[in-house]
Design brief:
The structure holds two protein chains of two kinds. By secondary structure, chain A is α/β, with parallel strands linked by helices. Helices cover about 30% and strands about 25% of the residues of chain A. In chain A, a hairpin with a 2-residue loop joins β11 and β12. In chain B, the strands form two sheets. An eight-stranded mixed sheet of chain B has the order 6-7-8-3-9-10-12-11, sandwiched between helices. In chain B, strands 2-1-4-5 form a four-stranded antiparallel sheet, covered by helices on one side. In chain B, a hairpin with a 2-residue loop joins β9 and β10. The longest helix of chain B has 18 residues. The chains are: A alpha/beta, B alpha/beta. The interface between A and B is large, with 45 and 48 residues.
């Protein structure tokens, strides 16, 4: 892969902690810290799709929202097109925000049910005073609905009149309204039926080609990520444990967590399933309030050694453009039985 | 078929709603042999859960109404049984595990109380024996320190553990049939793998018959021996698992398989998508329910509803158009 010189987005050591109250017997006496995102770094290049994968609670959605400054980070920087958006004052941030949009997971919760489709999709245009006249707005909305393959005649309907897949199209039209460069897709298909998922994914791919969009595709579906992404990053308890080009990632997964994750995914083919040997991880993801010392995965890791408890492994480049945070992984490791 | 445990004929269930009658299932028939694992596949609203709930008398009436059909279990029609008779079968001979393990436990009773209650009611053990048995069951499904965890309330368990506890409860009376209604849909993949592995081990150990309801064809490929595909309240295809994946015949099955990206393959672009939306079941169309979304639709499809026909041994398809050469993989 030819890597363009300057990334569109550089995330450096991004940290987002949440304070949560721990109820004591009489008063709320102490606060706990949820280390949702605990120091992640990656680059995102123009026109590419980076898949950010992991299990629930690993911090992938928080990472997406913190990048967009929907949550202000605890520390670290997010450099978008050369500008550190973390340091920006609200007015400045507002100007740059229009270039970064988001598509949410739940098409039922992310649309205001009292607004018509026309109002939802034109809202960003009004906020940013992008279209001056009523006619211009109407025309733009009709174009946007056409882009997401919704009948522009639906403009006066309300969200409840649409199916999940159609609502997700409305969400996409809203995200496209300001002609953004970066779109964070936060599990955009996981609430949809299988046959509808393919429709939405095909639409996202088409739009990306048409407008040279850059996607951060947050997902737990490793099969879909293989289909849609150029690079993949795996998160576990707030940190990135592996990041690589798609081909290298799926052919030579190196981190034991990635391997277990890939091995847990079922393949819709009984002949293949019959031959596969699964690595079944024991236990469940620990609490991000009190993550294990050293390597966070060590409590479930099939190959953990005493040294893994002592310090946290940094990402190391074990193969070209393939980074792994594990003391024990080596580049020569046999490919996983995908 | 030898050893038939459950035989359902012409089952038809409707829901009477203010917006009109919803024809949830429109005359489905199937039989379940002893020791089989059946996968019941389809998208939301296709009637897969309602089919099994109807058989167990768990459809709330009203609004639900079983309009026609029989469901013979050991020669007795479950659909004609009184609630009291059904209660003796449910949980004892036929158990069900639901999708959401949070809402299927009572939040104000301990896990131990809920599991041992089932055992006391059906097996007539005293409370101490039932508690001991409950602890054994929790151990069987892989919950650490089972005797202590019996005192926990459902919210103290994680999602995966609740589902394990649910399975323990379902297994408590060694049922002949275990119905699993999307039991892993709410769980992460690594936990899903744990649960699927657990159920497979239990199946092999106790020779249980399993009906696994899901929309996930990956799990079906891993677990099921026979698959039934549902669409719009009808069975549209039924076949042994390998036959179904190698030689899918119904256009809907073909579409479903084509719409799935695969972990072990580089991208086929774009994914095959099935245009349009699943049907609203307010009327029984009188023609093929898939016709509106089907790319092979012919005139006949809009005139009459195809019935299931056996096109190869044990492979049944309900479709007027049957090009033998169609296949998913290019």
């Amino acid at each position: 892969m030819t890597t363009p010189a300057k990334p569109l987005l550089q995330v450096e050591n991004l940290v987002k902690h949440f304070q949560v109250a721990d109820t004591g017997p009489f008063f709320r006496r102490k606060t706990n810290v949820v280390r949702a995102v605990d120091g992640i770094s990656f680059n995102l290049y123009k026109g590419e799709t980076l898949g950010l994968v992991g299990e629930s609670g690993c911090g992938k959605s928080t990472a997406g929202r913190t990048i967009l400054q929907l949550y202000r980070p605890t520390s670290g920087s997010v450099i978008f097109d050369g500008i550190d958006v973390v340091k920006l004052a609200p007015a400045e941030l507002r100007k740059i925000r229009r270039r970064m949009q988001i598509i949410f997971q739940d098409p039922y919760a992310s649309l205001n049910l009292r607004m018509t489709v026309g109002e939802i999709v034109s809202d960003p245009l009004l906020v940013y005073k992008d279209a001056k006249t009523r006619e211009a707005i109407k025309e733009r909305v009709a174009t946007l609905l056409g882009l997401v393959k919704l009948n522009p005649a639906f403009i006066n309907r309300y969200p409840h009149e649409f199916s999940g897949g159609q609502r997700q199209r409305i969400g996409i039209a809203r995200a496209l309204a300001l002609q953004p460069e970066l779109i964070v897709c936060d599990e955009p298909i996981s609430a949809l039926d299988v046959s509808i998922q393919a429709q939405i994914v095909n639409l996202l791919v088409e739009l990306q080609k048409q407008f040279n969009l850059t996607y951060l595709f947050i997902s737990h579906d490793l099969s879909m990520v293989r289909h849609i992404c150029d690079r993949v990053a795996v998160m576990y308890l707030g940190v990135i444990v592996e990041i690589a080009n798609k081909n290298d990632f799926y052919h030579h997964p190196l981190h034991p967590y990635t391997r277990a994750l890939l091995s847990a995914v079922t393949i819709p083919d009984p002949f293949v399933e019959e031959q596969r040997k699964r690595t079944i991880l024991k236990g469940e993801i620990p609490s991000p309030i009190n993550p294990p010392s050293g390597c966070r995965f060590r409590t479930r890791c099939p190959i953990a050694q005493p040294q893994c408890a002592e310090s946290q492994p940094e990402l190391r480049e074990l193969r070209p453009d393939h980074f792994v945070a594990c003391f024990l992984a080596t580049a020569q490791d046999a490919p996983a039985q995908v | 078929m030898e050893n038939v445990l459950l035989e359902v004929q012409g089952l038809e269930t409707q829901f009477i709603t203010p917006e009109g009658t919803v024809h949830a299932i429109n005359g489905v028939s199937f039989s379940v042999a002893n020791g089989e694992t059946i996968g019941l596949v389809g998208e939301s609203g296709c009637g897969k859960s309602v089919t099994m709930l109807s058989v167990l008398g768990l459809v709330p009436t009203p609004p639900g109404k079983i309009v026609a059909g029989t469901a013979l279990f050991h020669g007795q029609d479950l659909l004609k049984m009184s609630e009291v008779q059904l209660q003796k079968i449910r949980g004892a001979q036929i158990s069900i595990v639901f999708q959401d393990p949070m809402t299927s436990f009572n939040p104000v009773l301990t896990i131990g109380r809920q599991i041992s209650e089932t055992i006391q009611v059906h097996l007539g053990l005293n409370p101490d024996q039932a508690r001991k048995r409950a602890a054994e069951l929790l151990e069987l499904v892989g919950i650490p320190r089972p005797a202590e965890r019996l005192n926990d309330y459902p919210h103290q368990f994680s999602g995966g553990m609740r589902q394990r506890a649910m399975i323990a409860m379902a297994l408590s009376c060694k049922p002949q049939i275990l119905i699993a209604d999307e039991p892993t849909t709410a769980l992460d993949v690594t936990i899903q793998a744990q649960i699927v592995e657990l159920v497979k081990n239990l199946r092999d150990e106790f020779g249980m018959t399993i009906i696994w309801i899901t929309h996930d064809l990956g799990i079906i490929a891993n677990l099921a021996r026979r698959v039934i595909v549902m669409y719009g309240g009808y069975f549209v295809e039924e076949a042994p698992v390998k036959e179904l994946f190698r030689n899918p015949q119904h256009p809907y099955t073909l579409g479903l398989l084509g719409s799935l990206p695969r972990l072990d393959q580089d991208q086929r672009e774009p994914l095959v998508s099935i245009d349009g939306l699943p049907p609203v079941l307010h009327e029984k169309p009188g023609y093929c329910p898939f016709a509106a979304r089907c790319s092979y639709v012919a005139e006949k499809c809009l005139q009459a509803n195809p019935i299931l026909e056996e096109i190869a041994p044990n492979h049944w398809v309900a479709c007027w158009v049957k090009p033998k050469t169609r296949s998913v993989q290019p």
